[in-house]
TrEMBL record:
This is Cytochrome P450. Pathway: Secondary metabolite biosynthesis. One of its GO terms (molecular function) is oxidoreductase activity, acting on paired donors, with incorporation or reduction of molecular oxygen. Its cofactor is heme. It comes from Mycena venus. Keywords: Heme, Iron, Membrane, Metal-binding, Monooxygenase, Oxidoreductase, Transmembrane, Transmembrane helix.
Amino acid sequence: MQRPPPSDGASMKRAWCPPYSGPSGLYVRPFLDTIKGCQSSTPTFRLLDIKPTPAYIMLLIWAATTLGLINHLLFHRYEPSSANIPLLLLAIEPIVLLLLIGGPFSSARLLWSYFVFMGSLSLSIIAYRLSPFHPLAQIPGPAIGKVTKLWSLWKAWLGYKYLYHKKLHDTYGPYVRTGPNEISVIDAVAVGQIFMKGGLDKGRYYETGRHRSTPPSIVSLVGEAHTAKRRVWNRGMTSAAIREYEPLVAKRASQLVSRLREHEIVDLVCWFDLFAFDLMGDLAFGGGFEMLRDGRDVDGVGERIRVFTRASDIAGHIPWIVNTLHLFPQVGRIIQEFNNFGRGLAIQRMEKTVVDRKDLWYHLTDEAGHEKEKPTLETVAADGIVAIVAASDTTASTLSSLVWFLLSNPEYYRRVQQELDTVITDGDDPFDVNRHQELQFLSACINETLRLHPPVPSNGGSRQVHLNECGRNIAGRFIPKGTSVYTPQYSLHRNPDYFSYPDQFLPDRWLPDSKFERHDTSAFIPFSLGPANCVGQKFAKRELFMVLSVLFKSFDLRFEDGFNSEAWPMGRRDYFVVTRGPLRVNLTPRYRNARV
Ligand code: HEM
């Protein structure tokens, strides 16, 4: 074996390091060879650096800066939809750069190369996003929002994005640039144009919750595929279909009341949650949860769903990271477990031979055979899970907010009770939907609750200008391609241009003889608008009337002594649908209605 000659370190290196070959094995003559004063023409790795010459430093800075600018130009021209390739490129480019420049390959030089490269890339991105050349430059907004999504991502992580958007709109007006390529709009004319037929499609926000192993549900589909899926859902939400579901609602609402009768003080948020999950389990999968019976969510279904919704919500703000996250086996496993959970429920429902009514499953599986192709088990499982996610927290949230508003405003609470006692007299069926049409004041309270506490306060209705069109004109403003457009209901509903005393709970504004100066219902969109709006809104309203009628007929409610009711709204966190803190309420049974 050939041994190194006994010599000083430098000559040893010269003797034993082979000349650098490029990736194809060709010898690449390092640029540095051409610069006088270079210490070595063969790149070798050293932990400690040999002091580089000023010429070397200048070359490194120039090359890394240029590389950063080129990257920005390329990313801008060919916007990546996934971070996988860009991350890889960002990781290897500074290394390749050093190899091309030549010279000793030290950790210090590598760090410098990364530092200058990333610095130039970041600075050029920041400068462009803040510059008047950016297509969204005319839309006002905070500098941090124009530069990066990370700021609003942080707000979303905390669950207070809806409050953040409200503050931004209070400061900047109805159009705010909330991200580099994202705007938030609370102009009612624009909102109509965004949602109605011919408006914008759902954006990438809705696609992010889906792993490639999961079939698309109605939520993530767009275009014709969405129209086809929506047809199936629409059949499950006709008036006739909803009439078939009423006995299921009545059964679960009665069970809720009898369970509440066992307690004097309860956390209503918790009980409404149990009710809503049980009901949607019945509707979508023929039952199976029985949370009301157990008095708690034994299998952690609600928690699983909320973790999933929250993760999807966060990922929705940085959609390009999703494919990268999916590379991690742990993430895939969690999603797979969630899919299996839906699949398990679907299989369980299929095994049920006797089902006495046409439930939502009946329509989602197209048992009546209206469609050319039967949906697969996986597809129906995904839609069934969507039904539970979309319908449980939304209605439970409306129920708890409405109780909170009424208990905070005893005068309105009295009016609701009086109305109920007049319309549904003792012995009448509190679930009789014909009577519910007479409950005008309760209806006004429901609307006012949905206005002030929309269950989907900032993301419901996220849309995007398609990447293959050049842009859209919305209410006289040019919105360039690729822009994500949000219409946060919480801010829109509190826009003083459309509602007098916008932050106050004033249900009278919804009554036919209301005298409020400003009351523009085109700015009231708790269920969103257009062809992809909430398909379940009629059913949701029916459910709300049924539960609230029987609840207020059965109990006198008041906040538990010592309960900090004023702080309760701050416990509302926005993770697409809002989550809520406990609502501690004291229950005193009124008369026992014969029909409950
Ligand atoms: C108070 C209760 C509810 C509220 C406030 C609400 C609100 C919303 C909102 C804001 C959207 C987004 C629409 C968009 O992107 O434009 C939505 C979508 C949806 N909701 Fe609801 N929802 C409620 C109850 C329900 C119920 C009870 C069901 C089912 C039984 C349901 C099923 C759905 C479905 C399937 C979608 C997706 C529709 C599509 O993409 O075509 N929702 N909902």
